[in-house]
Write a structure and sequence with these properties.
Elements: H1 4-7, H2 11-23, H3 38-50, E1 54-58, H4 61-71, E2 79-83, H5 88-96, E3 100-104, H6 114-119, E4 125-131, H7 140-150, E5 153-157, E6 165-166, E7 169-170, E8 177-181, E9 194-198, H8 201-211, H9 238-248, H10 251-269, E10 276-277, E11 290-294, H11 298-308, H12 325-328, H13 358-365, E12 367-371, H14 390-407
Helix pairs in contact: 2-9, 3-9, 4-5, 4-8, 10-14, 11-14
Length: about 400
């Protein structure tokens, strides 16, 4: 069962898709008269809701991550600090930009530990890539202070947190650039797709060119002689924009529903001796797609998940550095170049191995995510879908509480 957006698809999405198909203009660009311009309208709506200056819709969250890095001029010889608990794209985007991912520990929020970030900054550090995992904000105030103190960029990977907030402002809107994802496991979805947001006009112009074969926003013809940089093609198409516009109108309904169910399950598990919940730097801004519980030991956690048919976060596939065998073994397409076998002056070859983040490893081994709006076999096999009501939330809480009580 994928994310909440999939379960609320209805006539609104169908109507938007029909409008695009009838127009005959499926790509982002078309004639001004009678052109639906769904992607452009979606971008403008996110600008309004998120309180940012610019939004750029692209074909995936991974593409948006790459654009943020490349747009900031990050490349060979540069280091980017990233958590060891994330989705693999946060790390692979850095590698495809030619830079060196520096893995850092997470704290009780399950996001970057500001103290470890500061300890790992070097003269080569160009950016901190903070990931708001499982819909929960990282400690943005502290991380922003670290970044400013050292003069490095702060990039927010809010792929799992579209619509979440920190101190009243959308996640993704606090750094130099923010990134969203719209795949099937995310808050709203068009099957795939992503977005970059920023308040930096120059960065937006550069990222737009990188995503559209070097063109400036919003091209109306062939711009020979006026293209700022060589680009690629990461454009979002109108069919995706149509679905996302309809989904965006349902965002408040989705968040409200998830938060009611999260609170029911959380209250149902409260006061169990030895059981804790993850830290939430901004409880009111938590997206509520996941409820993360922390057990006193890894052995207790293992016994509980075995009985419930779930997994600990340590076993969450491509979300933990130690499970990324292609990272650990440096498997790039060419088999050479940064950060593996890097020839950059004074740059040592990147090396990654299991056990290099002992605090992250220990925390994940005794933690479990209960899906509230996302039931994902790689993160939270046990949980509720968007269609679940309060009675189902209470039944799930009772079942989990009974099992936990037997093992604590």
């Amino acid at each position: 069962m994928p994310g909440p957006g999939t379960e609320v698809i209805g006539e609104e999405e169908l109507a938007g898709v029909r409008e695009v198909l009838r127009s005959g203009h499926l790509a982002r660009y078309g004639p001004e008269a009678g052109f639906p311009a769904k992607v452009l309208r979606f971008e403008r709506e996110v600008v309004r809701l998120a309180g940012v200056e610019h939004a750029l819709a692209v074909n995936s969250g991974t593409s948006a991550l790459y654009l943020a890095l490349a747009g900031l001029g990050i490349g060979p010889g540069d280091q980017v600090i990233v958590p060891g608990f994330t989705f693999v794209a946060s790390i692979s985007a850095i590698i495809h930009a030619g830079a060196h991912p520096v893995l850092a520990e997470v704290d009780g929020s399950f996001n970057l530990d500001p103290a470890d970030v500061e300890a790992k900054i070097t003269p080569r550090t160009r950016a901190v890539l903070v990931v708001h995992m499982l819909g929960n904000a990282a400690r943005l105030r502290e991380l922003r202070q670290v970044a400013e103190r050292h003069g490095v960029a702060l990039i927010e990977d809010a792929a799992q947190a579209f619509g979440g907030t920190y101190r009243g402002r959308w996640l993704g809107a606090h750094g130099d650039a923010g990134v969203f994802s719209f795949n099937i496991y995310k808050t709203i979805t068009c099957g795939d797709g992503g977005m970059l947001v920023t308040d930096d006009e120059a960065l937006y112009q550069r990222c737009f060119a990188l995503h559209d074969q070097g063109h400036s926003p919003h091209r109306t013809g062939v711009e020979v002689g006026r293209r700022p940089v060589l680009g690629l093609n990461f454009r979002m198409v109108e069919l995706q924009g149509a679905v996302l516009l309809a989904q965006l109108a349902k965002l408040d309904r989705i968040k409200s529903h998830l938060r009611v169910n999260r609170d029911i399950v959380r209250e149902g598990l409260a006061n169990l001796p030895g059981l804790a919940f993850r830290d939430r730097p901004d409880p009111g801004g938590d997206l509520a797609t996941h409820l993360v519980v922390v057990f006193p030991t890894a052995e207790v956690a293992r016994r509980v998940v075995d009985e419930l048919g779930s997994i600990t976060l340590a076993a969450s596939g491509w979300h933990v550095y130690s499970n990324m065998e292609h990272l650990l073994e440096g498997r790039t397409a060419s088999g050479r170049g940064c950060p593996f076998g890097c020839s950059c002056e004074s740059e040592s070859t990147a090396g990654y191995h299991r056990g290099m983040l002992p605090r992250t490893d220990a925390l994940l081994s005794r933690s479990v995510s209960i899906g509230i709006g996302v039931v994902d076999p790689n993160l939270a096999p046990l949980g509720l879908g968007m269609s679940a009501g309060p009675d189902q939330a209470r039944q799930l809480a009772d079942r989990i509480r009974t099992v936990i009580a037997r093992h604590l």
